């Protein structure tokens, strides 16, 4: 093949190399396929005589002689790769993701169902608690009222018996008082009769004296 | 050790095959295409073989890449674009694996070959064109006629749209190719400085520290670029597919 056809392609990449010290390269190309090229020539700014090792001076990616082989093998490998992807890998990963998606949705459903159950249990519990509390209140109220009624009855009974005693006592007092008052009249009449007899020695009728006592007592 | 930074892109024949005078040899490029496809499908196959409801770490890596591409495609091309999911997913995984494998020392980078990236880009654009005409017939050409453009400007705008459509396979392929190529060359050049300066004695070894730090930093950057370019390729594929599914909607 033509060794000099496209040397210019490689020049830009040789300039950087040319800056490196020459002596380090003296041995390097000799051990390589470059061997035929004098070392000094490698590092000139013009960059001539480079890349001969495979008989083509073309910058390797632009070497058209390799194109048919690259195209064929790319078609084979990428074609098989595409088939593997579209037949095996893509459906497989797709199904994995779908399964997981379904599973997550299912688990979320289950979780919300369980949550609803828990909520129900809580509301039942709270309802029962409220019922129990109301019942307790009723019992407490009943007990309180019963006690109150009992206490009232007791009090009434006591009051009644006390009132009875008070009334009896008052009756007796009134009786004693009446008797005493009645006695007061008789005593006064006797006293008055005695006083009159002593003072005037005359006899007075009982009727006069009682009338006089009564007048005086007024 | 070859100091030529383009040496790593050379295609070497491993098993020479010639059919009808055309060279179809199994080369190192072919080997790493096979490797990329095998590593990517092997990883995806083995990590998902448990089919765990609760994924293992590696299984979740596979699932994440699946969901990453799925959401990208759904956002880019709508839910009717999901029929292209295997295609976008294959492209992304193949390019990503090829890019990452290329980061290994002595490994060949499949995506640093313009013909490979161009073939992948043509595959995308070809799908877009074929599906566009299959689905919408000549209505697909509405793609080139944006809404709300004044009549006087229309020929100009249509011309620009056609040119931009035609440049898509080129920009799509060159972006990936150039990023991988430039990154690997830069790495090689800086790593070459380290080796060269290291032979210069004490001062040289001191001076070699700078390119060494640079090489380490660039390696990190290149891993980022390897992912980013696969991502960009997939995103643009989604956008172009969107044109095929909904022409004239942009």
From TrEMBL, chain A:
Transmembrane segments: 71-90
Keyword presence, Cell membrane: yes
Pfam family name, one: ATP-synt_B
Coiled-coil positions: 108-159
CDD domains: ATP-synt_Fo_b (cd06503)
CC terms in the record's Gene Ontology section: plasma membrane; proton-transporting ATP synthase complex
GO MF: proton-transporting ATP synthase activity, rotational mechanism; proton-transporting ATPase activity, rotational mechanism
Superkingdom, taxonomy of origin: Bacteria
Biased composition (Low complexity): 27-38
Membrane topology summary: Single-pass membrane protein
Gene3D superfamilies in the record: 6.10.250.1580
Keyword Membrane: yes
Keywords, in A-Z order: ATP synthesis, Cell membrane, CF(0), Coiled coil, Hydrogen ion transport, Ion transport, Membrane, Transmembrane, Transmembrane helix, Transport
Family statement: Belongs to the ATPase B chain family.
Subunit annotation: F-type ATPases have 2 components, F(1) - the catalytic core - and F(0) - the membrane proton channel. F(1) has five subunits: alpha(3), beta(3), gamma(1), delta(1), epsilon(1). F(0) has three main subunits: a(1), b(2) and c(10-14). The alpha and beta chains form an alternating ring which encloses part of the gamma chain. F(1) is attached to F(0) by a central stalk formed by the gamma and epsilon chains, while a peripheral stalk is formed by the delta and b chains.
Protein name: ATP synthase subunit b
Annotated source species: Mycoplana azooxidifex
UniProtKB/TrEMBL annotation, chain B:
UniProt GO cellular component terms: plasma membrane; proton-transporting ATP synthase complex
NCBIfam families reported in the protein's UniProt record: ATP_synt_6_or_A, PRK05815.2-4
Spans traversing the lipid bilayer: 29-47, 84-108, 114-134, 143-167, 187-214, 221-242
Domain of life: Bacteria
Membrane topology classification: Multi-pass membrane protein
UniProt keyword list: ATP synthesis, Cell membrane, CF(0), Hydrogen ion transport, Ion transport, Membrane, Transmembrane, Transmembrane helix, Transport
The protein's name in its UniProt record: ATP synthase subunit a
GO molecular function: proton-transporting ATP synthase activity, rotational mechanism
Pfam families: ATP-synt_A (PF00119)
Compartments, record wording: Cell membrane; Membrane
Main function: Key component of the proton channel; it plays a direct role in the translocation of protons across the membrane.
Keyword rRNA processing on entry: no
Similarity comment: Belongs to the ATPase A chain family.
Name of the gene this protein is made from: atpB
Protein species of origin: Mycoplana azooxidifex
């Amino acid at each position: 093949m033509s060794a000099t056809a496209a040397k210019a392609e490689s020049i830009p990449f040789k300039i950087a190399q040319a800056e490196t010290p020459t002596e380090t390269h003296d041995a390097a190309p000799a051990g390589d396929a470059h061997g035929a090229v004098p070392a000094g020539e490698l590092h000139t700014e013009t960059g001539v005589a480079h890349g001969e090792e495979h008989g083509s001076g073309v910058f390797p990616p632009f070497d058209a002689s390799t194109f048919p082989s690259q195209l064929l093998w790319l078609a084979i490998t990428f074609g098989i790769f595409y088939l593997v992807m579209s037949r095996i890998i893509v459906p497989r990963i797709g199904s994995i993701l779908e399964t997981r998606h379904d599973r997550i949705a299912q688990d979320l459903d289950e979780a919300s169902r369980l949550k609803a159950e828990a909520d129900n249990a809580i509301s039942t519990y709270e309802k029962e608690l409220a019922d129990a509390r109301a019942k307790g209140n009723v019992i407490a109220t009943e007990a309180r009222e019963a006690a109150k009624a009992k206490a009232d009855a007791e009090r009434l009974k006591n009051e009644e018996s006390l009132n009875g005693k008070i009334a009896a006592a008052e009756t007796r007092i009134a009786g004693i008082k009446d008797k005493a008052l009645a006695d007061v009249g008789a005593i006064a009449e006797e006293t008055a009769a005695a006083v009159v007899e002593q003072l005037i020695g005359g006899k007075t009728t009982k009727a006069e004296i009682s009338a006089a006592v009564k007048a005086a007592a007024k | 050790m070859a100091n030529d930074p383009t040496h790593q892109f050379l295609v070497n024949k491993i098993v020479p095959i010639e059919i009808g005078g055309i060279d179809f040899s199994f080369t190192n490029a072919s080997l790493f295409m096979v490797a990329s496809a095998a590593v990517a499908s092997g990883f995806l196959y083995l990590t998902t073989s448990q089919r765990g409801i609760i994924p293992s770490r590696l299984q979740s890596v596979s699932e994440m890449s699946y969901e990453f591409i799925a959401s990208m495609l759904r956002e880019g091309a709508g839910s009717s674009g999901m029929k292209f999911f295997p295609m976008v997913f294959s492209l992304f995984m193949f390019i990503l694996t090829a890019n990452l494998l290329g980061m290994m020392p002595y490994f060949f980078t499949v995506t640093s070959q313009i013909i490979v990236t161009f073939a992948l880009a043509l595959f995308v654009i070809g799908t877009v064109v074929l599906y566009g005409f299959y689905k919408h017939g000549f209505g697909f050409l509405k793609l080139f006629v944006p809404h709300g453009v004044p009549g006087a400007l229309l020929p100009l705008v249509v011309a620009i749209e056609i040119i931009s459509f035609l440049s898509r396979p080129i920009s799509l392929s060159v972006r990936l190719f150039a990023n991988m190529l430039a990154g690997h060359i830069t790495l090689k050049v800086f790593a070459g400085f380290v080796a060269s300066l290291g032979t210069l004695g004490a001062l040289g070894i001191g001076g070699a520290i700078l390119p060494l730090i640079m090489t380490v930093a660039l390696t990190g950057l290149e891993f980022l670029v390897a992912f980013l370019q696969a991502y960009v390729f997939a995103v643009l594929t989604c956008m172009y597919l969107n044109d095929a599914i909904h022409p004239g909607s942009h």
